[in-house]
Amino acid sequence: MTxxxxxxxxxxxxxxxxxxxxAKPDLLPLDxxxxxxxxxxxxxxxxxxxxxxxxxxxxDSTPDDAGFTAAKQLEKVLERTRxxxxxxxxxxxxxxxxxxREDIFFLKTDDLDKSQREYIHEYFHDEVLPVITPLAxxxxxxxxxxxxxxxxxxxxxxxxSGKNLYAxxxxxxxxxxxxxxxxxxxxxxxxxxxxxxxxxxxxxxxYTICAYGCFRITRSSDFDPAEDxxxxxxxxxxxxxKRKRGKPIRLELSSGFDIKMLGFLREMLxxxxxxxxxxxxxxxxxxxxxxxTMKGYDHLRTEAFVPAPAGDFAGCEGIFELIRKRxxxxxxxxxxxxxxxxxxxxxATDPDVLAIKQTLYRVSGRSRIVSALEQAADAGKQVTxxxxxxxxxxxxxxxxxxxxxxxxxxxxxxxxxxxxxxCKITLVVRREGDGIRRYMHLSTGNYNDxxxxxxxxxxxxxxxxxxxxxxxxxxxxxxxFSVPPDYNKLIVAPEHLKxxxxxxxxxxxxxxxxxxxxxxxxxxxxxxxxxxVQKLYEASGAGVEVKLLIRGICSLLPxxxxxxxxxxxxxxxxxxxxxxxIFSFINAGNPxxxxxxxxxxxxxxxxxxxLLFPVEDQTLKNRLGEALDLMWRDNVCAxxxxxxxxxxxxEKHGExxxxxxxxxxxxxx
Length: 669
Description:
By secondary structure, the protein is α/β, with parallel strands linked by helices. The protein has 19 helices and 27 strands.
């Protein structure tokens, strides 16, 4: 038995837990549909990045920590995803049945009555026909470039001489994927591709149509920019263009796809048959997200909530005065993101603020944070923003933000060569009566007011002088040519973070061996670093109780006699995406808690600028300790990893405990 779980298979286990939510009979149907669409979107990205990565390295014979070569991993992944997609289709069928009982129907053209046929006839000719472009493929018209994740219809025709001819119609993404057709009761939806297929004889009327079918292409997005460049911005633009034209890594086909059309597509796309999936139902299940959020059906999904006002900011008249009194904390999405925006807004408008420095990794489409930074620059303040251009799949958006901030007069930088800057920190420098004071916000999550409503993250506000010195030193390192500094309290990757974790675990081992109180409780999105896993195994052997809340990838195998019998691993998959990173050590009876931006993965610890910060205020430590304890007692959203490599729902003993629901209704101040 290997001591490590393969990264890719562990991630697939996570996505299976997401899909399992779609099968829960006690969940409302539109919530079930939402989880199904999330699992589909997750799988798309997995193929674009991870499957593409494995395929590019399939001839590399070097095994991973679990003992699998890239080729073996690829084989296992393709087998698992093939069955997974069939499970998705089966889950959709069950959900559609439930929605039908609520008068929400998904139709085919054969199901339409006379009035509905008249409606779609008019809709097609007025809205669809002017947009679609049938593309014939012959000696004078080469096979078109088809966008990543686009849905298309392939048409097989014959001319009078019996010659095979082919054409492609891209289903336009600019139009609604599901057309609502008139109905006497409830709501009826017709997939756009069904409508286009219905009118193919009118579109392609020159030849005899032999067959048609839908297909969808997933392209590789596993491209990284060249680091040895004089202009990272221009290099990122080139990389984005290259990514859009990545080679196909998956071809999904509708059921009963014509064999000649398939041969034609394989030749045109140059795709191996192992990457081809024929599916019995709809393609691109992620498009159903809009159905899950449609208006008028609130009774079919969990009641919307409004985050509570952040308790630490109750009655706040001046945010800087409040932070001077003590460290403050907000727990998203249970509490409002507004204090973060208010903090930057206050800095932008306060005449005593001299400078604002901030890191941006992923922000929302209409960012209130960016607007505040622009306002600050317009007011003449020194505004420095590190925009990470290499944030995977958000590169184009971040380039636009960088350009907008520069036009507003901000100093925009792009980080260190060879490293992504993933830390989340804002530094405000303010002139006060007793001199210069530095205020900070440090967080586990992004400055994104949209994800702040669906991701669980935690941030603190402080004006601790040693934190301030560290924050200034960090920004000077990121913006200039200074060597990495020695920090007072902050722990920064890639220089110090992995060593810090190893040292902390080692200290718990020494404490256990000396008969002192010991214990480790870690919450993160992923645990993959082999050195940390080995050190946790060592801690287990020394009798240290280790409790791990790992949402996604976990390469550690718990509960194995002689290796990890003192380690337990749980994963919470619920209404909100667990995203906060909390690291707690018993420390001989003097518990220490840290939070930060990093997961326990080589990329975070070795190839990124990450930030870990101690939580020193006892009130905040108590709140975090209570939250961790509540999450560990969850028996509604929690799964536990067993020594057989599988996750099982946590058994219920006594009352139901849904940690996310409890945090929604509980005041943890």
